[in-house]
Predict the 3D structure of the following.
Amino acid sequence: MNPVRPTKTENIRETLEAHGLKVTPQRSVVLGYLMSTDRHPNAEEVFQAVSLHLAGAISKATVYNTLNTLVAAGAIVEVSAEPGVTRYDANIESHHHFIDRETGRIYDIPWESVEPLCQTLGTDFSIQDYHVTFYGKALKHEHSPP
Ligand SMILES: [Zn+2]
């Protein structure tokens, strides 16, 4: 259900350019990491992964700033699944999430898997977007840390 997304250098470059961003090594490595994983890492986890990749040649502040830049440009999205923790997702298509309460791991749930909810609010609100977060236990996935 959650295949690792293919990440090619040209995909990273295209995504940055499609969102009006200049291609820099920092943006490429941060976006490339997020495109390669479906784990919805937080900023600290992104920092650790790219730091390893660049042999420590990137600061935490740079990673955090780069994440903010990518979010502002719409190249990635923030996922707020737990209070106080912002996670990042390179899957910018509309989709829902399932959070495993034991492991904390977040799974992508395809948009089509959830019945449309737009009718339920009646005419008092005009809905532009929505996002459903399910909580429970993932039954058919490997037991790996979030
Ligand atoms: Zn997601």
In short: The chain has a mean pLDDT of 87.
